[in-house]
Amino acid sequence: xxxxxxxxxxxxxxxxxxxxxxxxxxxxxxxxxxxxxxxxxxxxxxxxxxxxxxxxxxxxxxxxxxxxxxxxxxxxxxxxxxxxxxxxxxxxxxxxxxxxxxxxxxxxxxxxxxxxxxxxxxxxxxxxxxxxxxxxxxxxxxxxxxxxxxxxxxxxxxxxxxxxxxxxxxxxxxxxxxxxxxxxxxxxxxxxxxxxxxxxxxxxxxxxxxxxxxxxxxxxxxxxxxxxxxxxxxxxxxxxxxxxxxxxxxxxxxxxxxxxxxxxxxxxxxxxxxxxxxxxxxxxxxxxxxxxxxxxxxxxxxxxxxxxxxxxxxxxxxxxx
Length: 321
Known about the structure:
Elements: H1 5-15, E1 30-43, E2 52-68, E3 71-86, E4 93-112, H2 116-121, H3 127-130, E5 137-159, E6 165-190, E7 196-211, E8 214-216, E9 224-226, E10 229-244, E11 246-248, E12 252-268, E13 278-290, E14 294-305, E15 308-320
Antiparallel strand pairs: 1-2, 1-15, 2-3, 3-4, 4-5, 5-6, 6-7, 7-10, 8-9, 10-12, 11-12, 12-13, 13-14, 14-15
């Protein structure tokens, strides 16, 4: 959830032109990671909103590299699957569902006011380690992404004129999604050993989804077409995260955290999947930094809206050279 990719990269070189010596090596300053996500979104029917249940999975691999004392540039590639089933209360209609197989490519840029080279000298390699080491500082995370959606629609309808005869309509169609976003925050540290980390942050995300024409066939005279069209969303969030570093001399550092965020949509097109303008987000997780170069994290988030509740859990493994 991020933005201004090229601007951050240019400014970082202007203010910190010296390239770290280790970054000139093949893998020095490089991090690679994998992430898996699973969740469920449930919406109840109310005032024209159709009730549905959406099961979500997502798998991502990515990398980034330190290019100067304050900046990482990277990319990640993901596959997502969504199985959405709508509840139909109309007479003569059966089930209605859409599967989505999506493929995403994202370019990322992160800027930390904390010196990444000095952090590496202290054994703090990953972004999670840098931002939870007890040093006050600010950051900007940015991303530019493209996602190709491949939809598989299936709908059932009963032809009551010919006795209860079930007809099944199907359609395969596509959509292209473009995303641009940024998140900025400031890290305050408290406690005698600066082991309590409080991070107020804000994020701004722009999203445009263009759906191609869908032709539903298999219903005989009732075949129909869904016209192509685009949907624009612009949303900003304001939140805070509170974390605590717990150091084990034998194992490493455990960092449990909780966070809360309020999101408001400035633009929400009527063609958008979700037209609600206010969202509450609550999350918790545990980050583990081992004594070497590995970072592990397990996370849970809940998004609450009027008529809608989504829960997702995700885990991430990262190795830094």
